[in-house]
UniProtKB/TrEMBL annotation, chains A, B:
Gene3D superfamilies: Tetracycline Repressor, domain 2
SUPFAM superfamilies: Homeodomain-like, Tetracyclin repressor-like, C-terminal domain
Domain HTH tetR-type: residue ranges: 3-63
Gene source species: Bradyrhizobium valentinum
Residues of the DNA-binding region: 26-45
Name of the protein this chain belongs to: TetR family transcriptional regulator
PANTHER family associated with the record: HTH-TYPE TRANSCRIPTIONAL REGULATOR LMRA (PTHR47506:SF3), TRANSCRIPTIONAL REGULATORY PROTEIN (PTHR47506)
GO molecular function, a single term: DNA binding
InterPro entries: Homeodomain-like_sf, HTH_TetR, Tet_transcr_reg_TetR-rel_C_sf, YxaF_TetR_C
Pfam families xref list: TetR_C_13_2 (PF21993), TetR_N (PF00440)
DNA sequence: GGCTGGCTATGTCAAGCGTCATATTCTACA
DNA sequence: TGTAGAATATGACGCTTGACATAGCCAGCC
């Protein structure tokens, strides 16, 4: 099957991006890492690395939003928060704190493509597109948490702020855990976030 | 003065790192961007790019911890939180949401040096050192907030958790603001964090 | 069988990278 | 004033990168 190769490339790119970031992830390393043929890149990704990154991003986004959506719908906002954090904790510990969030990597870095030429600007449009994609994924996660809070009676504005707090603090904490090679910050933040959410729900 | 050139290189590297990330920041671009002589790199940074990054990191760390420490000491934890967030908001808006936090960039990326050879491992020790540095800076900011909370009567364990929440959520929010090209998440998160802190202080 | 079209394999290319070596200029002190 | 040492300028080297071109493979269908 052909799309098997393509899927492996996308997953491998997402994995490498979450470990090394966007610019440190080369297409050659993706194929090395996944055992996929180098020559197939041009076939599956005619727009090159930019396209690979885009696909890897939405892949990574769905990997999170899937479980998150399911759990908030079946067991509520607090359970969703716990699952969200547990999911990142799992990623961190499974990889010995080497992998983080590839969406955050895109939001923090600036993708620069070497093989672009002579126009005045490097590739501002491409970078904007990646940022739009990352923004959309963050917004997606936030919307899931927002909906769960609304369903449990939290006022719209408050729900928006709380959802932003949950997503942002978790993302930041994952990066800090990577630096500290410890999951302790995640536990600390989870504890405080649970307090905040349950107190907002009790009102 | 010689150290003037050196200081400009460090500041320029910190700025570029906060915009593009570690790997997308080349030494050639640092000297281009700062108008400093390329040949001086070897003089001021005998250990090369690794050393430049390290110096830029502690430079960026101090730029934040200075004001943060001063404000928490003179006006308390909540004022410190407001200043911390206002500081990042200023950076975001001044650069049209192009610059973020260079410490976060180090925590999210993996620095890979091209010009290393033939040993089995690339440069694991160098990367670990950068992570240690970033971890130390995060811990520094956290300690300042922790101390302020303690001074205002918050129990040690709680103060540690709250400090972690403040730093992590702010870092995450800054990255999200970059992706969204909007400071709205920062406002949302600031509002919720103020609620949390003041309620913890009221106890 | 033969052919066609989706894949794969491999090599080349220009450009950028960090580092090093060398040459030149500047500067401060004897 | 003379001179040593710091600072700067410049070019070369080996390497990797993304992109592209060419050629080989191997199904499925006439």
């Amino acid at each position: 099957m052909s799309s098997d190769t393509r899927a492996k490339m996308v997953a491998g790119a997402a994995d490498l991006m979450s470990r090394r970031g966007v610019n440190a992830t080369s297409m050659r390393e993706v194929v090395r890492h996944t055992g996929t043929p180098r020559g197939s890149i041009g076939h599956h990704f005619p727009r090159g690395k930019q396209q690979l990154i885009e696909d890897a991003l939405v892949f990574a986004g769905k990997q999170v939003s899937g479980p998150l959506q399911h759990l908030t719908e079946t067991r509520g906002a607090v359970a969703g928060l716990r699952a969200f954090i547990a999911l990142w904790r799992g990623t961190l510990e499974r990889t010995e704190f080497q992998a983080g969030c590839s969406v955050l990597a895109v939001a923090v870095e600036q993708y620069v493509n070497d093989a672009t030429e002579k126009d005045s600007e490097p590739d501002e449009a491409a970078q904007q597109h990646l940022l739009d994609l990352a923004d959309g994924i963050f917004a997606d996660w936030q919307r899931i948490m927002f909906t769960a809070l609304r369903r449990e009676g939290v006022a719209p504005a408050r729900a928006r702020r709380l959802a932003a707090l949950v997503i942002a603090s978790t993302e930041g904490t994952v990066a800090m855990c990577r630096a500290a090679r410890s999951a302790q910050p995640l536990d600390d933040v989870r504890q405080e976030l649970e307090l905040v959410l349950s107190s907002a729900l009790a009102k």
